[in-house]
Each structure stands twice: as structure tokens, then as C-alpha cells.
Fold this sequence. Notes:
The structure is a single chain. This protein has helices spanning 2-6, 26-39, 53-66, 80-95, 119-133, 140-162, 166-181, 191-201, 211-233, 237-248, 262-275, 279-291, 295-307, and strands spanning 13-14, 49-50, 107-110, 113-116. The chain is mostly helical. A two-stranded antiparallel sheet has the order 1-2. A two-stranded antiparallel sheet has the order 3-4. The longest helix is centred in the middle third of the chain and has 23 residues, at 140-162.
Amino acid sequence: MLAFAMRPWINKIYNSLGKPRTIxxxxxxxxxxxxxxxxxxxRPDLTYTLQTAEERxxxxxxxxxxxxxxxxxxxxxxxxxxxxxxxxxxxxxxxGYPLWSLKYxxxxxxxxxxxxxxxxxxxxxxxxxxxxxxxxxxNAKLIRDTNKLITSYFDSFKNILTAPKAFDQGFYAFLRFxxxxxxxxxxxxxxxxxxxxIKKNLQxxxxxxxxxxxxxxxxxxRIASNDDAKQKSGTDSGKTETGVKYLSGKTNTTTPKxxxxxxxxxxxxxxxxxxxxxxxxxxxxxxxxxxxxxxxxLDAILKRIETNA
Length: 309
């Protein structure tokens, strides 16, 4: 009787990984359900979701738009959740830049044709990014809007996606925008170093980067590179001494072996913050950061204060 009742839902319900439950899974699902009824052993395997017609349409549209089925390890995309994984873990990883980078160019040349990145296409980009970063149930209105935009701008957006250097230009345009907005001084030849720093130090994969995370990463790169330059010129010995006192509790002014690299410094500082219970030292460090007088840092601190007020 139970098997008969579940038959209409074959290939229409999906597990937590976004895979459809086929007729081959029916016996397993019934056994798990009976086990839950008899013993109360609830398992994630029993959590299923339905997929609407709009979600199926969006999934197929994105597969066609981004050619997701051609990606290695993503040839069997069966749901919108699968599609999101393919975009963030496959497509964007291969491109090397966030999808939202394309919002920061107004036009791009491809085969001597100028392609305009309209406000509607920028909204489409925002929609796709929002859908991909949403781990829960996606807003139905957002899905409908995205389907309409893809239908209207499929060819235009596809040409932009495949234009040479489109993502590169978009991402570096975003970095320039941040520098101008936050009064960060940067030379043209430094952008490559800034990007490498961001890639190494952001905790998430590029498919999950947010604009706010990249903004923070750029600021931290500027602070770190300025600090390195000052130490090399010997003009920052006082600050180096203070930093060593905080981390080791000693007055030794020699930089610890291996701490010359930014990554090592970050490791030391993060380890110290995680393990210390000395509030006074943390206050001193924060006071030193405030004394730097960088507006971006101060805004970030004020934002955190307001969030926790």
C-alpha cells in the first residue's frame, strides 16, 4: 500500500543533494520510513523536496546558458540544486572570477562588436548570484523574474559570458571602484598582487565570494603590503616591536622566523585571537588599528558595533 502511494512521486521528489528519487530508490525509502515509525530513528535521508515547473525551467535555462553539462563531473544535472552546485563549484571555478564581476563593466568588445551590459542583464546577474548562494528554498518571485530575464536576454548575456577577458575586466573594474570609493591608493601594476592576495586569503571558493568579502580582502592586502614596505625600509620598527609584544608577551624586537610572509602573519594573529582570554591586550590591538585612521576599517568596526548593539 505504501509503495503504491509513493509511486506518483517517483522522479518528482528530491533528496537533500538535489537528486531525484527513482523507482530504484523506492524500496530503500519505504524501509527507512518504516524504521522511523517503529523506532523513531529520524535520518536526513527522509527529507525530500519538490521542484516546481518554474524551478525546472530555470535549471534547464541555466544549463543551456552556461553549458553546464559540458563541465567535468557535472554531466548529470537533475535539479536546480544540482545546477547551483555546477555553477559555483564548476563554472565559476573554471572562469576564476565571481559571476558578479560582469556587473562592473558597461560594455565589452567581442569580434569587433560592442556588447552592452544593460541594467536588466546586471539584474539577471544579481538574481543568479542570489539563487546560487541561497541554501534554502528559493523565492518563487525571484525564480519567475530570472526566467523572464533569461528568456529576454539569453543571446545577449551568452555573448557577454563568452567575450574574451570579460570576467577579468569586470573583476578589475570592481577593484578600481573599491579603491576609488574607499580612497585606497593603488598603482596599476599592483592589481595582480592584490588579486593573488585575495585568492589566497578568502576562506571560501571563488564561486561563493561576495562583494563585501573581496572589499575586505582588498583592504587587508593594502594594509599588509604597506606594512611589508615599511618594514623593508626600516621605518616601522616601533610597530613591529609592539606586535611581537602582543603575540609573545616578550620585548624581543626580532621578527619570528617565517613571519615575514603575510600568510604566516595571519596565521599567528588568528591563532593568538582564538586562544587568548586577555581582554586588555585585545583592546590595545584594536586601539592600534583605530589609530591607523583608515576610514574603511573604522566603517567596518562601526558596522560591527551597530550589529551587536
